Amino acid sequence: MSSIHIIYASTSGHTEYVVDTLIEFLSQKTPEIAVERQRVELAKPEDLLRGDLVILGSGTWNFGGVEGQLNEYMHRYLFERAQDIDLTGKQIAFISLGDDRYYYTTRCTEKFMRFLKCSHAKMALIPLIVVNEPYGQEERIRKWGEKLIKLFEQPIPLTSSPPQHVPVA
Ligand SMILES: Cc1cc2nc3c(=O)[nH]c(=O)nc-3n(C[C@H](O)[C@H](O)[C@H](O)COP(=O)(O)O)c2cc1C
């Protein structure tokens, strides 16, 4: 059985709503994919190794007094508790939220990209970016869910072969 492990942070409940909408869609469309969700406050570094695919979800916050950051709990998880993890060969997808009243709208996505690079993981598909309240944006979430399902229907190799060295004559 295929499986997805979702680790998320949510202060006012928006990211949690997106995660739950996604899980409801996936469980209806593909009950053969087991989906688990976990609040980041309870996650251990090794939880990033769970499932065939890990999804990380967070809103954009002003952690440390600076706008455009990850939710504090997600920041501390990725860049403190799990900072040394090596996710080579692992696929990750991201869900980012934000609000266009802020100058650095949904810029937590950049922090997720930084983690992707540091951990050597591979991005499974383009991030789901939800601007403003997620209520009424369920169709976008489901569309992204369809793309996720396609990943499982046509599995992309987790590790690509290293480039061949062609000797120059
Ligand atoms: C104090 C504060 C700071 C925020 N900073 C940003 C920001 O820099 N950029 C942005 O796009 N949204 C910002 N937001 C909006 C949140 O990212 C948005 O409401 C999000 O949906 C919250 O998700 P959550 O409830 O799952 O944590 C901020 C909200 C608050 C209350």
Keywords:
single chain, Rossmann fold, disordered C terminus, 32% helix, 4 helices, binds flavin mononucleotide, alpha/beta, 169 residues, 7-stranded mixed β-sheet
Can you lay out the helices and strands and say which pair or pack?
Elements: E1 2-8, H1 14-29, E2 33-39, E3 53-61, E4 69-70, H2 72-81, E5 91-98, H3 108-119, E6 122-123, E7 128-131, H4 138-153
Parallel strand pairs: 1-2, 1-3, 3-5, 5-6, 5-7
Antiparallel strand pairs: 3-4
Helix pairs in contact: 1-4
The protein binds flavin mononucleotide (FMN).
Summary of the model, kept short:
With 169 residues, this protein is an alpha/beta fold. It has helices at 14-29, 72-81, 108-119, 138-153; strands at 2-8, 33-39, 53-61, 69-70, 91-98, 122-123, 128-131.
Give a written overview of the molecule.
- Helix content is 32%, strand content 23%.
- The chain has 169 residues and is of the alpha/beta class.
- It has one domain (2-153): 3-Layer(aba) Sandwich (Rossmann fold).
- Strand 3 (53-61) and strand 4 (69-70) form a beta hairpin.
- Helix 1 (14-29) crosses helix 4 (138-153).
- The longest helix has 16 residues, at 14-29.
- It is globular and about 45 Å long.
- Mean pLDDT is 92; it is low at 158-169.
- Bound molecules: flavin mononucleotide.
- Flavin mononucleotide is lined by residues 10-15, 59-62, 67-68, 71, 97-99, 102, 104-107.
Shape: globular
- Characterize the biggest β-sheet: 7 strands, mixed
Q: Which structural class should the secondary elements be placed in?
A: alpha/beta
The hetero molecules present are: flavin mononucleotide
Total number of distinct structural domains: 1
Which topology does CATH recognise? Rossmann fold
Number of strands: 7
CATH architecture: 3-Layer(aba) Sandwich
Number of DSSP helices? Answer: 4
The residue fraction in helices comes out at 25-40%
Assess the beta-strand content as a share of residues: 15-25%
Query: What is the CA-CA span between the terminal residues?
Result: 49 Å
Averaged pLDDT, please? 92
Low-confidence stretches: 158-169
- The run of helices and strands is EHEEEHEHEEH
Going by CATH, the homologous superfamily would be Flavodoxin domain
Supply the CATH class: Alpha Beta
Radius of gyration: 16 Å
